[in-house]
Specification:
Strand content of chain A: 25-35%
Structural class of chain A: alpha+beta
Number of helices of chain B: 13
Radius of gyration of chain B: 22 Å
CATH superfamily of the largest domain in chain A: Lipoprotein localisation LolA/LolB/LppX
Helix content of chain A: 25-40%
Number of helices of chain A: 6
Distance between the termini of chain B: 83 Å
Radius of gyration of chain A: 42 Å
Largest interface: A-B, 58 and 58 residues
Oligomer: heterodimer
Order of helices and strands of chain B: HHHHHHHHHHHHH
CATH class of the largest domain in chain A: Mainly Beta
Largest sheet of chain A: 12 strands, mixed
Distance between the termini of chain A: 145 Å
Largest sheet of chain B: none
Structural class of chain B: mainly alpha
CATH architecture of the largest domain in chain A: Clam
Chain lengths: 292, 344
């Protein structure tokens, strides 16, 4: 008996073609589910996402990562970046750094100054312009003259905390307890400039720094501030050798943007010049004395 | 089976209770007003949002949930613990880098949106450094589970309970998931919020928010230098070198900026001093941004895919060392800005 032949007939592994195809299909499905277990539960949108972001979907982008192109790109980027930096490309950050550094330096120079003389012109009010001369002689010692065309009307003496106002027209002197009492007097427009320390304090606390402007090659620059309390702008022209202000203009901007600015006040400074103490000589009045 | 589930729930409850107690303490400290000088709400929100979104950019929801489970003491197989450890380590790194990134962004915004006197600007610039403190605290909080899980893994390996072998990359780990894209998107939203809100909120500013964060010379040098370094390394190492490459080019850029500052000081050119400082700050910022949104997530993906067991020493040094240097550069820049120029 042909045992081999008998066994082959009994244990025939060949399946009908249809059954074989169905079985292969099921095996393929099973393999897929093992490899991506979540895919069976995924919604349509998630399937699209998976298809979009599978690595094989992005093979076409390989040309971007061509080595020669990348070498060229990196060299080009380095060269252009270095060139732009060397030519001093303008940037908001650099300009603000410059404004801040200049402003800090100016405030420091003002604080360290020995003496100051400042001539102030205030725009005409009711037809009469006022001029002031502030002489800051040394710490704690200052004199402010109010001048109406041609003559000195009033003088304020500040000597180590003592405040005296002299009215030259009435030949009267008045002792004040504090500077607040001058709020509604003729001295009010120059209250923020009575001493270098006061100007520096305003720069530190009150005036908001806007920007710094400098023309190429010039040894002067302009710091622009906003004084929110008084609703005006301040234009401070600075000498970049001494970092001290040469001129401060208080401006009220017109309602129209970019329109001409109206100058409310102008201060011209002379710094660290020898100042005679004769400015602190108190006048001898034959007239009355009063006190506040 | 039920007992184990009950035990796990108890552990999670305990962790939740601890978090609530800490949150209550933090809230008490914040609302007491005693530490208002140490509060920088924008910095804090940026660090929190940035850290969460960066984690989303690198990991899937199941991986995040498993990491929290493992941190709460519910332990899985060694391979899962290893993945959780990678997650917490990445979260710590992200928190630290987001803190420094937040500081740089806050510094630039404070400098460019001058809203008070000099004293106010200097105070706001100094306060921007608080974001780093928040980032560091969050990094330590995230590092604790990483250390804990690392120790568990070490003990398990020592006992030969199971070998932690690297699995071949699964198809899932190779592709970008939906939550990863959402993470990237939200991180960009967080950065935009930091820069756009103060700039658009100030009426008098005449520049766009992009002018604050895009300084072309630094962008070109950092990206160009990084591409060059990656090309030098080439091959399979290219992905792994991205983090150190960004750090190295950022460092070179910053040093070049400082050299320009010194040369400008010598020649007395004020604007070039500022341009050099801008290059230092912008190079640090660009390098940090590259490390955060490209280097970090790519490295996490490589570890997850099993192509590398853990981040290299160089990469770790870059992730923790460069932000520290960037911070130092920022301090030097702040000192140079608020130090008056002496003449004569």
């Amino acid at each position: 008996m042909d045992v081999d032949g008998l066994l082959k007939n009994v244990l025939d592994e060949r399946l009908p073609a249809e059954a074989e195809r169905r079985m292969q299909g099921r095996l393929a499905d099973f393999r897929k589910r093992i490899e991506r277990p979540e895919q069976g539960r995924q919604t349509g949108a998630a399937r699209i996402w998976q298809k979009l972001f599978r690595p094989e979907a992005w093979l076409w982008t390989r040309w971007i990562f061509n080595k020669q192109a990348l070498v060229f790109l990196s060299i080009f980027m380095l060269a252009v970046g270095g060139f732009l930096q060397a030519t001093g490309l303008r940037s908001v950050v650099a300009e603000n750094l410059t404004s801040l550094r200049t402003s800090v330096s100016v405030a420091d120079s003002i604080r360290r100054s020995g003496s100051m003389e400042c001539r102030v012109q205030v725009a005409a009010k009711e037809g009469v312009p006022s001029d002031y001369v502030i002489r800051w002689i040394q710490p704690g010692m200052a004199r402010v003259d109010v001048q109406k065309p041609g003559e000195v009307r009033e003088t304020l003496w500040i000597t180590n905390g003592d405040l005296v106002v002299v009215d030259h027209l009435k030949n009267m002197s008045k002792k004040l307890a504090s500077l607040e009492q001058l709020q509604h007097s003729a001295f009010q427009p120059v209250m923020g400039f009575l001493s270098p320390a006061k100007i520096a304090e305003n720069m530190d606390q009150r005036w908001q720094l806007e920007r710094f402007e400098q023309e190429t090659g010039s040894r002067q620059g302009t710091l622009i501030f906003t004084d929110h309390e008084k609703g005006s702008h301040l234009k401070m022209t600075v000498d970049l050798d001494s970092y001290l202000p040469i001129r401060i203009s208080r401006l009220r901007l017109s309602a129209e943007k970019g329109g001409p600015a109206e100058e409310l006040m102008r201060l011209d400074f002379t710094w660290n010049q020898p100042t005679s103490t004769q400015w602190m000589m108190f006048p001898k009045f034959a007239g009355k004395k009063g006190s506040a | 089976m039920n007992m184990s589930k009950e035990k796990n729930n108890k552990k999670l409850g305990l962790i939740l209770a601890r978090i609530l107690v800490v949150a209550a303490l933090v809230a008490a400290v914040v609302f007491s007003g005693k530490f208002s000088g140490f509060m920088n709400v924008r910095g804090l929100l940026f660090v929190l949002a940035g850290s969460v979104t960066l984690v989303l950019a690198s990991f899937s929801f199941p991986e995040i949930s498993a990491a929290f489970r493992n941190a709460a003491g519910v332990l899985d197989k060694p391979e899962a613990i290893r993945k959780s450890m990678v997650f917490w380590e990445a979260a710590a790194r992200n928190a630290w880098m987001t803190g420094v990134l937040g500081t740089i962004l806050n510094f630039i915004v404070a400098l460019c949106t001058l809203s008070g006197g000099i004293a106010d600007v200097a105070t706001r610039m100094a306060a921007s450094f608080l974001a780093t403190v928040y980032g560091m605290v969050l990094a330590v909080i995230c590092a604790v589970p990483a250390w804990k899980l690392g120790e568990i893994l070490r003990l398990q390996t020592a006992k030969n309970i199971s070998q932690t072998t690297l699995n071949p990359a699964s198809a899932e780990a190779k592709s970008l998931r939906f939550e990863n894209a959402v993470g990237y998107l939200l991180f960009l939203v967080a950065i935009s919020w930091m820069v756009f809100k103060p700039v658009l909120g100030a009426a008098h500013l005449n520049f766009s928010p992009f002018d604050l964060i895009i300084y072309w010379p630094a962008l070109l040098v950092v990206v160009g230098g990084t591409i060059a370094l990656v090309l030098f390394v080439g091959g399979d190492g290219a992905g792994r070198i991205l983090m150190p490459a960004f750090a190295i080019t950022g460092l070179i850029g910053s040093l070049l900026g400082f050299i320009q500052v010194l040369l400008a000081f010598a020649s007395g050119k004020t604007y070039l001093v500022s341009a050099g400082l801008t290059f230092v700050i912008a190079s640090s910022f660009m390098a940090m941004l590259g490390m955060t949104i490209v280097g970090g997530p790519l490295e996490d993906r490589l570890v997850k895919q099993g192509r590398t067991e853990k981040p290299s020493g160089l990469s770790r040094a870059a992730a923790y060392g460069f932000p520290l240097l960037a911070l130092l550069f920022l301090v030097v820049a702040l000192i140079l800005v608020i130090t008056p120029i002496k003449k004569g």
